[in-house]
């Protein structure tokens, strides 16, 4: 409806004033008493046409009055807003539409564009931590929204399976654990994380260990058979850990990329890169000089010959577009890498490879009261630890429940996603699992409550699209307010498919749950003395259940039928 109003207003502005491409907005008023939609077009036009906003608004209302069948009333409000009120019939028909389309409600038409969203990107030989979780939740929700929004999306994961950190871990294993039976270790991923921290600390404190490590790193890079075998074995340990976490979270990837492979591709590309004027040798290293673009210098190869991330990300970007024929590449990586990706995109552009590429950054995550994590300090908060703890918390708070995992992991995802990517998160476990706050469990409970009501009816939600339901009976202010919120869902999907602001999904779910509870407290759903009204209200709450479930699904949270 928002798009339709924008087009109608554009046409009215042209008819009245002969103007095209006027930058105005159609938005939801903060208070429903000011209508379902409001536009600032009169305020925008005032200076351009030399009239007061109120006068312009009056002209627009007179022109549009009665022309839009879905709109019951158009009003002018100070200081020059035009407010639109949807008709009751339009809102009542929305209930039928939702019950007919079910989980396809809000799905946009296929757009014919192919995208790749790369996210997660953990390093093997390090533990998967709380910061990785935020990345996964953002990336998976974005993939879900884009697919709902009509995009063809490839979900990709770029695994850091090479580099100095791995050489340090291999050195730590051979130096301090060479005589141990590695296969007998229970928690292998945790072992690797501890060995890495142990190695970093030891090398930092002992110059002789630094020499030993450098020698091992050289042997590893030259393909030493024993070190390669150890690398492959321990890499598999990490991948098994990652997959367990992805399975628990319900996250799936269509394609995996490997840093070790892109490093080789980058080294093969190096002679070609050196033909570019801005890529040159400097103090025995190879750099990309981007100073004239205000982007500084990016080192691609150190003076010891080791390849850095840039030399790997350049061939990877080209591979994505050429091998997978995508139209756009989106990369979800923490906000600290903002300058780095501007450098990579500029290098590709200067090479003549100008494609649609976007970096989505996100801020740090910590536990309430904890210090910022660093795997180098050995004080990271492992993802598995957090996942297990929040499930334990749910089991403690709701003894006897068999839904600890469903509620706990849902609470974790919901809490992290409700923050804008640009905001830091201090994760509060107790706050996240509350049933009476802006939380996942609160929304899950609303869904379960609807399912409980539907179970009390003979047919549940199986026959709510039949013609014998008298939807014009839905005229109570709480009913109409609830339908107004349902009506916003497709427009939210369309907005987020463009803006990528997936943190708006939890807030929509909370508001819809709020409005359902408000309706439920004011309106008797099952009234044996008024079966027609009961049928209409059952149809309404069925529509709410469908949209709540679909919103939770986009976030990656389950919609339980019982709690």
Structure description:
It contains 20 helices and 14 strands. The protein is of the alpha/beta class and 563 residues long. It has a five-stranded parallel beta sheet with strand order 7-6-5-11-12, with helices on both faces. The protein has a four-stranded antiparallel beta sheet with strand order 1-2-4-3. Strands 8-9-10 form a three-stranded antiparallel beta sheet. A hairpin with a 3-residue loop joins strand 3 and strand 4 (81-86). It is globular and about 85 Å long.
Features:
single chain, 20 helices, five-stranded parallel sheet, Isoleucyl-tRNA Synthetase, Domain 1, 563 residues, alpha/beta, 3 domains, Gyrase A, domain 2, Rossmann fold
Topology at a glance:
Blueprint: H1 2-17, E1 26-27, E2 37-39, H2 41-49, H3 53-64, E3 71-77, E4 81-86, H4 88-101, E5 114-118, H5 130-148, E6 152-159, H6 164-176, H7 188-205, H8 207-221, H9 225-249, E7 255-258, H10 259-273, E8 279-282, E9 285-289, E10 297-301, H11 309-324, E11 328-332, H12 338-350, E12 356-360, E13 365-367, H13 383-397, H14 404-417, E14 425-427, H15 429-432, H16 440-455, H17 477-487, H18 489-499, H19 504-522, H20 531-555
Parallel strand pairs: 5-6, 5-11, 6-7, 11-12, 13-14
Antiparallel strand pairs: 1-2, 2-4, 3-4, 8-9, 9-10
Helix pairs in contact: 1-3, 2-3, 4-17, 4-20, 5-18, 6-7, 6-8, 7-8, 10-11, 11-12, 13-14, 16-19, 16-20, 17-19, 17-20, 19-20
């Amino acid at each position: 409806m928002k798009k339709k109003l924008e087009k109608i207003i554009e046409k009215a502005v042209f008819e009245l004033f002969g103007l095209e491409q006027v930058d105005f907005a159609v938005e939801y008023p903060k208070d429903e008493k000011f209508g379902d939609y409001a536009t600032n077009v009169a305020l925008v036009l005032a200076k351009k046409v030399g009239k007061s906003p109120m006068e312009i608004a009056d002209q627009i209302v007179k022109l549009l009055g009665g022309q839009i069948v879905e709109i019951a009333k158009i009003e002018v409000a100070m200081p020059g807003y035009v407010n639109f009120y949807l008709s009751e019939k339009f809102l009542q028909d929305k209930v039928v539409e939702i019950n007919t389309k079910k989980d396809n409600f809000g799905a946009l038409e296929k757009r014919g564009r192919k995208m790749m969203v790369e996210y997660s990107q953990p390093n093997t030989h390090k533990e998967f931590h709380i910061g990785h979780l935020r990345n996964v939740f953002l990336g998976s929700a974005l993939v879900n929204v884009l697919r709902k929004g009509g995009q063809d999306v490839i979900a990709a994961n770029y695994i850091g399976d090479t580099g100095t950190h791995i050489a340090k871990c291999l050195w730590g294993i051979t130096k301090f654990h060479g005589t141990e039976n590695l296969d007998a270790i229970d928690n292998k991923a945790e072992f690797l994380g501890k060995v890495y921290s142990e190695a970093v600390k030891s090398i930092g404190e002992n110059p002789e260990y630094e020499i030993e490590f450098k020698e091992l790193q050289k042997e590893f890079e030259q393909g030493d058979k024993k070190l390669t075998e150890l690398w492959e074995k321990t890499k598999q340990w990490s991948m098994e850990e990652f997959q367990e976490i992805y399975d628990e979270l319900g996250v799936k990837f269509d394609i995996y990329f490997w840093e070790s492979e892109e490093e080789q591709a980058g080294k093969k590309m190096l002679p070609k890169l050196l033909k570019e004027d801005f890529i040159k040798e400097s103090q025995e290293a190879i750099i990309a000089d981007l100073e004239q673009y205000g982007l500084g210098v990016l080192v691609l190869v150190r003076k010891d010959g080791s390849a850095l991330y840039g030399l790997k990300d350049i061939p990877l970007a080209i591979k994505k577009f050429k091998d997978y024929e995508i139209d756009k590449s989106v990369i979800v990586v923490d906000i600290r890498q903002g300058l780095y990706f501007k450098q990579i995109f500029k290098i590709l552009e200067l090479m003549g490879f100008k494609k649609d590429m976007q970096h989505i950054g996100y801020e740090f995550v910590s536990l309430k009261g904890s210090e910022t994590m660093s795997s180098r300090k050995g004080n990271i908060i492992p993802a598995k630890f957090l996942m297990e703890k929040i499930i334990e918390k749910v089991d403690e708070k709701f003894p006897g429940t068999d839904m600890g995992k469903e509620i706990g992991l849902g609470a974790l995802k919901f809490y992290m996603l409700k923050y804008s990517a640009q905001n830091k998160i201090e994760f509060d476990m107790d706050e996240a699992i509350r049933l009476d706050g802006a939380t996942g469990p609160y929304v899950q409970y609303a869904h379960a409550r609807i399912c409980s009501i539907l179970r009390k009816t003979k047919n549940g939600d199986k026959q709510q699209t039949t013609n014998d339901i008298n939807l014009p009976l839905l005229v109570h202010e709480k009913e109409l307010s609830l339908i107004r919120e349902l009506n916003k869902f497709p427009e939210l999907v369309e907005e987020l498919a463009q803006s990528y602001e997936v943190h708006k999904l939890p807030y929509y779910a909370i508001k819809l749950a709020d409005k359902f509870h408000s309706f439920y407290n004011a309106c008797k759903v099952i009234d044996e003395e008024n079966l027609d009204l009961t049928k209409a209200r059952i149809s309404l709450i069925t529509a709410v259940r469908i949209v709540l479930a679909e919103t939770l699904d986009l976030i990656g949270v389950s919609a339980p039928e019982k709690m």
